[in-house]
Amino acid sequence: MKPIFIAAKRKNLHFDKKVLDKLNLGKNIDLLYTIQYENLAKEVRKYYIKKGKKTTLKHVLGCLIVKSKNPLLIITDGKFHALNIAVNSNKEIFIFNGYNIEKITKVDLDKYNKIKKGKILKFLSSDEIGIIVSTKLHQNRLKEALVLKAKIEKMKKKVYLFICDNVSIQEIENFPLPVYINTACPGLDKDNYKILNYIDILPYIKK
Fold this sequence. Notes:
Blueprint: H1 17-21, E1 28-33, H2 38-50, E2 54-59, E3 72-75, H3 80-89, E4 93-96, E5 101-104, H4 106-125, E6 128-134, H5 142-153, E7 158-164, H6 169-172, E8 180-182, E9 195-197
Parallel strand pairs: 1-2, 1-3, 3-4, 6-7, 6-8, 8-9
Antiparallel strand pairs: 4-5
């Protein structure tokens, strides 16, 4: 059966112009949005254009890398997508949900990178490793996981594959492995101190 994807957009969204005006981002701004906030993002862009600012508008997922010299403002709720984009792009990012402004700062990025370094050291020193594989569309990297498994085993480590549709952090905790290599959604590494994205260990694995 072919899956059908329907964008669930939030309606009747308004934004506080006074809050937005307090955010001085300059004349060139890159606007990002999650699909639920598309309508609000378009309204924000219109407002900025009336203010004489140059803007771009882009729908994003959490795994996106944004290469830009302009300030980034993402229209969304919560920090999940913003943090992932900030980490992937190594760039600070502002978050606007219509009423409040938040920011992923360089301090946040430095904290994340420090934690990631600790996970990498744990991977290198551990004898047993788990690899998380998702069966979801666009997240299924079973072939990459099998190649990764073979390479890690050459490092004299025992490797276990965990294949699932919905990745449950609680279920993973039932298996007392020191490190899990994630090949699914890259945002998973923000949810658990044992999960490390596979791209982060590639420099430490022999080809």
